[in-house]
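Q: How do we represent a protein-ligand complex in a form that can be generated cell by cell?
A: Start from the inputs.
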Amino acid sequence: MLSQAISFDRDKVLPAAVLILGLSAIWVVLTVVYRLYFHPLSHLPGPLLAKVTDLYGGYHAWTRRNHYHLFELHKKYGPVIRYGPDRVSFNSSVAVKEIYGASKPLKKAAGYRAVQLQKDTNNLFSSTDKGFHGKRRRILGQGFSEQAMKSYEDIVHERVDKFCEILTKEAGGDGWGATKNMSKLCAGLTFDVMGALVFGQPFRILEDESGLSYVIDAIISAARSVGVFVHLPMIGKNEFLFRIRAILRLMFLSLKDIKNIKSFLTLSSEMTKERADKEAAKAAGEDMTKANGTPNKDILGYILNAKDPETQEGLNLDEVWGEARLLIIAGSDTTSTSLAGALYYLARNPKIFERLRNELRCAFPSEGDIWPGQKLSKCNYLRFVIDEALRMACPVGGILWRETMTDYMVEGIKLPKGTDVGVPLYAIHHNTNYFTDPHTFNPDRWDEKVVGEEFVALGKSAWLPFQIGSRGCIGRPLANMELTLTLAKVVYSFDMKFDEGKESLGQTTLSDGILEFETRDQLTAETTGPFLRFKRAGRA
Ligand code: HEM
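Then emit the C-alpha cells for the protein with protoporphyrin IX containing FE bound:
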C-alpha cells in the first residue's frame, strides 16, 4: 500500500517539479536576456552581473567597500554606469543638480524603506513620500533654526572641553598622554552631544561612567544591515521581504549586538517618555535656562512643542521616539567620522597642522576664548581643513539613490519612470574633472586667493558631503559647530603624533597603491583610529 502511495505521489510530483523548475529556468533566462539586450538601459556600460541583478550592488554594500568599488568602476567605465537592472550611477556635477536639485521629479528610492525604524511609522530620513517629508521637515527644522543652534552652544562646549581633558589624561613625565583610538573617542564625543541635545542629558560615554558605551556598538551593528538593504530595492518594493526584514537583519547580528540594540531601544524609549513628561508638566518655555542671552533647550524640547506651521499638527509620542532615535543615529556616526578623518589628515600633514594653529592663535588670545560664532567662522583655514576632510573622508561615501517619478533625462540619457539614479559621493569627491590630485589632502584647493574663484566654484559643484536639495542634511549647522569647535580647541592647545606601533591601522590602500583614511560604508561609516598621542602645547 505504502509503496503504491509513494509511487503514485512520485508519478504526479516529479513531473510537476520538473515543470516548475523548467519554467523557472526559462523565466530566469528570459529575464537575463531582456535585461542584457532589450532593457531601455541595456546600452549603458557597467559590470555584466550588475546589469542582471541588484544582488551585485547588494554584495558590494555587504563588503562595506561599495564606495571604493564605485570609484574604481567609474574610472574604468566613465561617468555613467548601469549599476543594477534599473539603476544608474552618474559621476558628474551636472547629474548632481539634475538628480538632487530642488523640484526635480525624483523621490528617495524604495530601498530607503529599510531605514524605517518602527514597523509602520516613517521618519524624516526614511520617508519616500514628498508630502510627508515636507511636513515633517517643517516640524524638525524648528530644532535646527539659528536661534535653536545658539541655545545648544553651552552643551556642545561643555562636551568638547571634556573631550580635550581626556586627551592628556594619564600623561607620563614627558607630558604625552596615552594612545587614544580617535574613532572611539570622537564617537564618545558626538554620541554624548547628541544625547544631551536630543534628550537634555549626555550619555556620559566620554567619562566612561554611565555604562552606556554600548549605544555606539548598538548603532554601528544595526547600521550594517541597513547599509545593505538600502541597496536592495526588492526589500522596499516586495511587501513580503519588507515585512520579514527584521528576520533578515539577524544575518548581520551577533547575540551581543541584538542585546545592545534591545537595550538602546528601551533606553531611548524611556528617555523620550521622560522628556515628554517633563515637557508636559511645565508650561512651554518654563524649563529654559539662560545661556548667552538665549533660551537653552534641547532638540526634543523643540520637537515636542513644534507644530507644522501650515497644518498646526504636532507629533505623537511614537513619532517623537522615532525621530529621537533617527537624530542620535544620523548625528553621531557622521560627525565622529569627519572628526577622526580630519585628525588623521592633520597628523599626517604637520605643516598644515602648524598653519592652522597659527591662524587660531592669531584669532584667539587663549583656548578659553574659542567659542562658536563669528570669530570662529572667520578662521578661513579652519574652514578649508574641514571641507577638505569632508571631501576625503566623506562620512556618507556611497550612493544615495533617488527614483524617477516620470520618464526623465539625466546627462542627456533617457531614464524610464521607476529608475533609481544617484551620484556616489566618494567617487565624485575624487573625480579629477573637479579636483587635481584628488587623493592629496590639500586645504588650499578651497582658497580662492590661492587657486582662483573659478577653480573653487568647480570643486564646490562636486562637493556634497551633506547632500543638496530638500533631502539634504538637516543637522549641518550642528555638525559644523561640533567640528569647528573641537578642531579649533585641539589644534590650539595640543601637539599630536601617531602611536608609532599603530600608525598603519585604520588606513586603506586603493588599487593604485594610494593610502587613505578608511571609511567602511554602511550608509554612514565605521572607522578605526587614527591612534594618536597628545601633549599640552606651550605658546611660542
Ligand atoms: C559631518 C556630519 C554629517 C554629514 C556628513 C551628514 C550627511 C548627511 C547626508 C549626506 C544626508 C542625506 C542622506 C540621503 O540623502 O540619504 C543627511 C541627511 C540627514 N542628516 Fe546628516 N550629516 C551629518 C550630521 C548630521 C547631524 C549632526 C544630524 C542631526 C543632528 C544629522 C541629521 C540628518 C537627518 C535627520 C537627515 C535626513 C534629512 C531629510 O531627509 O530631510 N546629520 N546627512
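Residues 124-125, 137, 326-327, 330-331, 334-335, 338, 395-396, 400, 465-467, 471, 473-475, 478-479 surround protoporphyrin IX containing FE (CB under 6 Å). The mean pLDDT is 89.
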